[in-house]
Amino acid sequence: MGSRADAAAKARLQSLFPGRVVEQLNIDYIGLGGGGIHCVTQPQPVA
In the structure, what pLDDT confidence band is assigned to residue 38 with cuts at 50, 70 and 90? Predict the structure, then answer.
């Protein structure tokens, strides 16, 4: 977060996924804990 490329990256993703909401998240604290974005976005079972 805070990169000059953030706005361009968001615009590109929005153009690739029309009708979807693109949210940018600061994951610095996840990384400090030794994880990555995949650690908090794992699929969850329905039941």
Answer: confident
